[in-house]
Amino acid sequence: HRILCVVGARPNFMKMAPIMAAFDALPGIEAKLVHTGQHYDVAMNHQYFQALGIPDPDINLEVGSGSHAQQTAEVMRRFEPALDDVAPSAVLVVGDVNSTIACALVAAKKGVPVIHVEAGLRSFDRAMPEEINRVLTDQLSDLLFTTEESGRANLLNEGIADGRIHFVGNVMIDTLRLNLPRAVPAAQIAADAGRPGFADKGFAVLTLHRPSNVDDAAILKRLLETAGKISERMPVIFPVHPRTRATIERFGLSHLLDRASILLLPPMGYLEMLGLMKDATVVLTDSGGIQEETTALGTPCITLRHNTERPITVDEGTNTIAGNDPAAILAAFEGVSGGGGKAGRVPHFWDGRAAERIAAIVAAWLQNR
Ligand code: UD1
Question: Which residues form a coiled coil (predicted)?
Fold first, then answer.
């Protein structure tokens, strides 16, 4: 049996690495990898592939950026002939990016079964493009793997049959546990950036890329001003996503970051980001994955959104939802900076073996078809 696995954007890569490895270890399953090219910068791509030991993609679609419609359509158009060529028993997609929904839709219409890893997460906020991708991908999927138990209830509510849903844990945490010994220490990252000592006495990490935060000038300004206030209490390391770099320049906000206690970095490789999260006193982020990674690491996280599709990171983990209001963010920061951060525990099945469970279930499912 051939399985065609799809990656497109940075948060897909670390999820796919353990899945490819688990399929590789099973006789009778051949996993092929297609990269849609949604992310194309070296910083967003090759650093990840190399660090994670992901095999080079068998197929590159090179779609690049565009509006949602353009990007999704272009992935669909280019994925169809690739799917015909490979003629797999199933297509496996991960996460919630535009490449996920695009390839799931093409496969489903061709009668090729769809497997969705990280199914059932819901923010209940349809203003988020990823929420639309999540809901629709799950509707198209034959086999749905969840990272936390909230996923099953969400899927059942949307009419998805219980027998298709499998709670297996979190493949991103498989990757995290495997690579933790190789994480690049924050002190080294600061030194390499020409600021030795910057990270030695506690620091905050900031990441921002969600359109609702960075594409609105007033909100972005407010968030960067808040980062400035935090930097008066603790050094801030800010790896800047390409989307965010572009809007900071477009809105003329660069001066807000021009402070000795803010260290701007390009997008980090996986092992660098892992080291920053591990060594940080606190992480402020609007990423989905980072909420989970900080929970797995036990590092306090302040989420700069009004909701989360990953409620277990709040219920059991180290995550606090603060939104984009400066007073709420600063209050949450005061809560953790004095050492009073949420202790949290690591959720069930975030144990490094999620991909093995997925491969075993997929193999049995293929046998019975
Ligand atoms: C995408 C995902 C988001 C994920 C994020 C992680 C969707 C809808 N969004 O958002 O869920 O959290 O990736 O990074 O799929 N750009 C570059 N180089 C690149 C890629 C993008 O410069 O390699 C710039 C381009 O100007 C582009 C912008 O970033 O227009 C946005 O890229 P895009 O892939 O559309 O969405 P992300 O914001 O990265």
Answer: none
